Amino acid sequence: MTTLLLAPLRGIGRTTLGALAAIGRIALFGGSAISHILRPPFYPKEFLQALVHIGYFSLPVVGMTALFTGGALALQIYSGGARFSAETVVPSIVAIGMVRELGPVLGGLMVAARVASSIAAEIGTMKVTEQIDALVTLSTHPMKYLTAPRVLAATLAVPALVAVGDSIGIFGGYLVGVNRLGFNPATYLKNTRDFLETWDIVSGLWKGAAFGFIVAVTGCYYGMNSGRGAQGVGRATKAAVVAASVLILATNYILTELFFSA
Amino acid sequence: MITLSGIHKSFGPNQVLRGVDLVVPTGQSMVIIGGSGTGKSVLLKCILGLVQPDAGSISIDGEDATTAARDVFLARFGMLFQGGALFDSLPVWQNVAFRLLRGSLKRPRAEAREIAIEKLRRVGLKPETADLYPAELSGGMQKRVGLARAIAAEPEIIFFDEPTTGLDPIMAGVINELIREIVTEMGATAMAITHDMSSVRAIADRVAMLHGGVIQWTGPISEMDATPDPYVQQFIHGRAEGPIEAVR
Ligand SMILES: Nc1ncnc2c1ncn2[C@@H]1O[C@H](COP(=O)(O)OP(=O)(O)O)[C@@H](O)[C@H]1O
Ligand SMILES: [Mg+2]
Questions:
Q1: Does the complex come out with an ipTM higher than 0.85?
Q2: Residue numbers of the domain that contains B192
Q3: Which end of chain B is more exposed for a tag (fewer CB within 10 A), N or C?
Q4: With an 8 Å Cβ cutoff, are A130 and B78 in contact?
């Protein structure tokens, strides 16, 4: 009887311990990535490639996400605001919601899906085909050559993506506001501008940097620790996306506490 | 001279190496034979520090391999991996010249490319191959590119992990001859893994048989056929009956 009751608890306990251990290892890996970013040798070509791959090629996904989210947000705020006749707050709430929260979080999650998976799969495949071993024998440190450029690139690229996403999201809100909800274009823009503070935007960009770091670090970590064979790479890829997404959401909460709790 | 003594390595419950003792004299080529899964690749990786042995010591010319400065230590080695392990994001010539394009051996790009093309020619590949990507090559060509990469920086010690596996007999013959030539010509110390007996005869100065996690027999190639060791006899004649279990 007691074993029957304890079995699920034990399962939860084991999962929790496992998750905490994984977070610890990812954190150590992230620390080591930073130390390799700071010390030569540097690989500028790999960095630029990673920047294009992570930043530029993520633009369409992040842009589309922001556009639809901004539009939906405008509709929601309008119908919700109507309950206490506060429809006029639509522009400012769309703007604040986008730049502080939805821009960075949704952008981060989309990048997690697109980039954490591809990094984990690429590095995992390199691991199982002995390419990582080959790198080492060619006197090249895998952390420096593979991890450092990707982590640096993602940390810089995601804030830029967030900035673009913020603008497109606000524009999505504007399109819906003006065309569907009957806002005057000039008033909409003025409201957006007047109520948005610099820190709203900057805090979102910091979040973006943190999320970019998380995405690249988890992708590299799971790739480097990939199990053997195609199955190992598959598992690593899945684990990287799940871990990156959860860590982004958790970090988002923590950063929001830090930035905005009075 | 490469000296291994008492090398142990387990993966979980799987005890792969259980006390390997082996000496590879400088300038000679040692061929390691043994069934698949006996830990031959793991042994080479232990020497390179890609796998940490659980116990035992490894020294190169009397210097402990585990404490040596990694960069200087690795710069003395070239390795041909079992699957080629070419970087599929880089064209062939950049694979071959990898070491020459970065780090302590860095030299101008044009010069590195020239050396790469020269090494490719050395392993029987045309200059046109240089700009292809590894995925565009056949298995045999990938092996040869791997070989060219292993010798590109003229290492003192070269490891070959199953250089002829998966190749047709003619290509295997070509690779064997090539390895022999490279070793003789460069005066390098070589360790090769193979289960191909024609390859053993073509490459080896000395042979060591790995079985059950230890070196069962080692000696010069000239003594291999005459040794009474039942493991070696069963292996070189490919018999199903003998001390080595056919089902592993
Ligand atoms: N990284 C690893 N993790 C777990 N087991 C491994 C690892 N590398 C090798 N092994 C195991 O060690 C044994 C020897 O492998 P290997 O040295 O590749 O054999 P071979 O003699 O065919 O080259 C095998 O049973 C293999 O499963
Ligand atoms: Mg092997």
A1: yes
A2: 1-76+155-248
A3: C
A4: no
Give the pair of three-digit tokens for residue B192.
């090769």
Backbone angles phi, psi at A141, to 5 degrees: -80, 120
Per-residue pLDDT of chain A (262 residues; tens, 9 = 90+): 677 888 888 889 998 898 899 999 999 999 999 999 999 889 999 999 999 999 999 999 999 999 999 999 999 999 998 888 888 889 999 999 999 999 999 999 999 999 999 999 999 999 999 999 999 999 999 999 999 999 999 999 999 999 999 999 999 999 999 999 999 999 999 999 998 999 999 999 999 999 999 999 999 999 999 999 999 999 999 999 999 999 999 999 999 999 988 6
Q: Is B79's CB within 8 Å of A137's CB? A: yes
Q: How far is the alpha carbon of B145 from chain A, nearest alpha carbon, in Å?
A: 13
Q: In one letter, which amino acid is A78? A: Y
Domain boundary among B118, B134, B154: B154
A129 touches chain B (CB under 8 A): yes
Strand B55-60, strand B2-11: pairing: antiparallel
For residue B72, the 8-state DSSP code is H
Under 8 Å CB pairs connecting chains A and B tally to 49
Q: Which residues are paired to B7 by β-bridges?
A: B20
Which amino acids bring their CB within 6 angstroms of ligand 1?
Answer: B 11, 14, 16, 34, 36-42
Rounded to a whole number, what is the distance in Å from the CA of B191 to chain A's nearest CA?
Answer: 15
Q: What is the sign of the dihedral through the CA atoms of B9, B15, B21 and B22?
A: negative
Selected residues 131-150 of chain A with any CB under 8 Å from a CB in chain B: 131, 133-140
Q: How many domains does chain B have?
A: 2
Q: Is A163 a domain residue?
A: yes
Portion 53-72 of B in contact with A at CB < 8 A:
70-71
Which atom of ligand 1 lies nearest, measured to the CA of B40?
21
CATH number where B179 lies = 3.40.50.300
Nearest CA to ligand 1 atom 26: B37
Q: Are the C-beta atoms of residues B142 and B129 closer than 8 Å to each other?
A: no
For residue A181, being part of any structural domain is answered with yes
